[in-house]
Specification:
Helix content is about 50%, strand content about 10%. By secondary structure, it is of the alpha/beta class. The protein has a single domain, classed as Rossmann fold (3-Layer(aba) Sandwich), CATH 3.40.50.300. Helix 4 packs antiparallel against helix 5, helix 5 packs antiparallel against helix 6 and helix 5 crosses helix 8. It is globular, with a radius of gyration of 17 Å. The structure holds thymidine-5'-phosphate. Thymidine-5'-phosphate binds next to helix 5.
Length: about 250
């Protein structure tokens, strides 16, 4: 029986994931990433439902959050506050939440052979506190090693959308991070593009502008390309232009 649940956006019904793909991602650690308004959370709920329909056991988590302690840290990070929170303080709070998530949820799930589906992970820290916030990437990666040990994603899928499309998908009540302004969020998007260029074996960028069904097809194509050989179909994966040295995976 599947234990997949869509905890954050409610129940979803879905076509089962194709059996060969379900087998290929069993025991893998997959991260859905992207700018605010990219649609990744909705797609992750659909994908978790498709896994459940295929009887693939998953652990569906969100970062920051996903544990009692992590949810309290999430409130500090996302609620508006009188005092500015420095990028380094933000970085360490995200890592603290992540350390707890790894210890309580991700590492045990991987040890049990489940497929872990995470809504964000340290690629967010590299994009938001790093490229956009100015914290050096090597400091972030050092902190990630402390927080996560060797629990690294097998694949991070970045949902790429232009700023206008993303802004149109947000609720008008912006949280503290969403309210950082257009220039900050343009740097976040650049940060994600940089990661896809630098680490193409572990970071796939997909076009997230289409209909929900088109975006789901793009996710499945990215997973097939990474985990099923030979690739059955390869529509609309945004290929990095050049390959630079890897970052998060050494
Ligand atoms: P979300 O979980 O609803 O996507 O919101 C989390 C917010 O926190 C989002 O604006 C991205 C931001 N964030 C960071 O700035 N750094 C991080 O490491 C993570 C995980 C999220």
């Amino acid at each position: 029986m599947s234990s997949s649940t869509s905890k954050f956006t409610g129940r979803h019904t879905a076509e089962p994931l194709p059996a060969d793909l379900a087998a290929a991602i069993r025991g893998r650690f997959l991260v859905f990433e992207g700018p605010d308004g990219s649609g990744k959370t909705t797609q992750l709920a659909r994908f978790a439902a498709a896994c459940a329909a295929a009887d693939l056991e998953t652990e569906h988590v969100r970062d920051p959050g996903g544990t009692d302690t992590g949810e309290r840290i999430r409130s500090i990070l996302l609620e508006h506050s009188e005092e500015d929170i420095s990028p380094r303080c933000e970085m360490l709070l995200y890592m603290a939440s992540r350390a707890q998530l790894v210890a309580l949820k991700i590492a045990p799930a991987l040890a049990a052979g489940k497929c872990v589906l995470a809504d964000r992970f340290y690629a967010s820290t590299l994009a938001y506190q790093g490229t956009a916030g100015g914290v050096p990437a090597d400091e972030i990666l050092s902190a990630a090693l402390i927080a996560c040990g060797d629990n690294r994603p097998d694949l991070t899928i970045i949902f790429d959308v232009d700023e206008q499309t993303a802004a149109g998908r947000l609720s008008p009540l912006l949280d503290r991070m969403e309210a950082k302004g257009a220039a900050f969020h343009a740097r976040v998007r650049k940060g994600y593009h940089d990661q896809a260029q630098q680490d193409p074996d572990y970071v796939a960028m997909i076009d997230a502008r289409g209909t929900p069904d088109q975006v789901t097809a793009n996710i499945i194509a990215a997973l097939r390309e990474r985990f099923c050989a030979p690739a059955a179909s390869q529509p609309q994966i945004v290929k990095p232009q050049s390959v630079k040295p890897r970052t998060a995976h050494g």
